[in-house]
Every structure is written in structure tokens, then in C-alpha cells.
Write a structure and sequence with these properties.
about 300 residues, nine-stranded mixed β-sheet, alpha/beta, kinase, 13 strands, UDP-N-acetylmuramoyl-L-alanine:D-glutamate ligase
Amino acid sequence: MPRPEEALVAMGPVAGRRPEGLFVGLCTLDVIQLVDHVPGPDEKLTARDQVAAAGGPATGAAVAFGRLGGLPRLLTGLGSHPLALGVRADLEALGVRVMDLAAERMDPPAVSSVLVTESTGERAVASTNATGHRLRAPAGLEELVVSCDIAEFDGHHMDLAVEVAHAARSAGRRTVLDAGSWKDGTERLLPSTDVAVCSADFRPPGTATPAETLEFLQDHGVTWAAVTAGGAPILWAGPDGGGLVGVPGTRVVDTLGAGDVLHGALAYHLSRHDRIDGPAFAEALARAAAVASRACASFGTRAWLTAD
């Protein structure tokens, strides 16, 4: 198995060819409502706007990767319920190729109910996520990972993520972890992770600060790591040091999916580099942060795709 630094020196896309990304994780139906405030008990209110679209961290990252010019493939469990067919159609219209590992399942897909407060852009989310579903890796996994330039995981469907990450590392493909929160099994995924970008809510055992999180990740085999904090600068660390990357200011309308967009954009910009060093990693983070900030300036998870 290649060492982490060897995996990050693997050849990037051929000049003039669109990079290919493999995204492994959760796919949901997001029902998003724009409201004046989150309703209290027994309160009813009329939403100002709504969006229904495919969601989930890996899914949102795949959409962003495609929007920037990449060729994304999503490895997930969706099923054949009518709602799932609508989710698939939404993604295919955006150029995301879906490999459904639960195609025979007839129950509805996971649904995320999202309320976005108009005055602040803050969101409240309820979802079953991937609870109760275990996915098996597809036949021809080795050929699948070899065909991509980079693989990204959101930590859902953990057994699948660990197997695909191991195969990607063995094939010399870069691996990126969207670490939104510490999940059961995350420790099994880290040894096959080249890059981990974490939210402030990601707290490995025994850590209490972003600096401790970065140290933990590096001690567990992650070469490049970063911790985001909303509009605050991104703290990052690599083999030879680290630093801060600023996040562009914007009028926040909706923060839903901003982290997913950042990860998809980061995967895209990392896939354009033959070699990753400190300046290249910081530049990729800065470019990704700019895309994520732009996504926060409009309501829902789709409007930013067509914004100038």
C-alpha cells in the first residue's frame, strides 16, 4: 500500500481532460422551507419559499464538483421508491452519475426536513440519514476507483466508505474525508484518508480544540487536515506546517449545504494538482471557500449553480 505522501504525488488529470471524482455516502430528499422563524409547539406558519432537491453531504459535494467542470459519480443507496426516482432524476440532470447499491429497496429514501430562517440564514434539520441501511461494495470496485482521480467520503455508510477508501489508497488515488461529526467507525477510515476537512463539531476522542483535532488526524495517518468554522478563517496543517485561510465575506441568505459545496470544490481543485504541498493545499482551500461563500448568498442548494 502506498504511503500517504506517495498517494498525494499520484498523477493528476491529463491536461485538457475533465477530472473524475467518486463520491461515497448519503443521498437524501431535501425539503427546504424558508421561514420567518422556526415554529414553536403547535404553531403553523406559511413558508416564504421552498426547494425540493437531492441532498446529503456526499451528494452536495458531487453536485459542486460537477458544477466546476468535473465528472462526478455518486456511490450511495437510494432505492426504487417514486421519491427516490425523483432524486435520481434531479442528480442526472446535473450531470451526477448515480451508482445505486440499494436499487431493489422499495421503501422511501431518507428525507431531510429543513427550515431556513430568512433573517439569519441559519437552518434546522431533521433526517433519518443512513440509519438501518448497510451497503455492500459493488462488483468491480478496483476498476471503479482506478477510473477516478479523487475519492471523497462523508462518513455515512461507514463499512462501504472504509472498503472504497482502502481500494482507492491501494490504487494511488487521493482520498478526501468530509468530517462533519465523529461517527462510529471513523477511526477505521482515517488510515486510508489523505485529506480531511472537518467542521468545528468534529471532535475525535480526547480532543477539545481545533489544534488538537488536527494533531489527532495527523497522528492517525491523515497527511493534510483542516478545520472550518463558518465565516471564520480555516485552520489547516500539513507535513511541514500549517496556517490560516480566509473565508470571503458574503451576505448570508442560507448556510444549508455550504460545507458540502466546500468539499466538492476542494476535491475538484485538489484533483487539478499533480503534487500537493503547503501552498497548493492552502490555495485549494481558498478556492473552495470562495465557492462555498457564493453558495451561501442564495436560498436553497440549487440557486447558486446558475448565479453569475
